Amino acid sequence: xxxxxxxxxxxxxxxxxxxxxxxxxxxxxxxxxxxxxxxxxxxxxxxxxxxxxxxxxxxxxxxxxxxxxxxxxxxxxxxxxxxxxxxxxxxxxxxxxxxxxxxxxxxxxxxxxxxxxxxxxxxxxxxxxxxxxxxxxxxxxxxxxxxxxxxxx
Length: 153
Known about the structure:
CATH class: Mainly Alpha
CATH topology: Peroxidase, domain 1
Number of strands: 0
Strand content: under 5%
Distance between the termini: 25 Å
């Protein structure tokens, strides 16, 4: 785990209210729900990039919404988790949804990720990998999107 996910897990062990606040933050633009500040700001306080700050807030909310006690299985990158879900469910729409996620612009990204992770509620997600990918989402060569697509296919 990166320091950030470890940080969130540590906070969660001390007070489960952390998850409730961070889940609620998903109803707002990343980084604008003031109640989430005490849980994310200590980790990102020296971060100058607004994109990186927003992605930490987004991942914190997604982590909280997706968290389950005693989840079994190794955490999977989102591309692999989506592929696993497609095979297990026989869903024909997951590929379309996944491609829509990969094509999401920065404004659509939080909504698309919330939708995808809601589908993957039974999968263990690698939130370290998710954060790492999101930090580079706007790369001109679309390295994150390409890596996720390779994992899916």
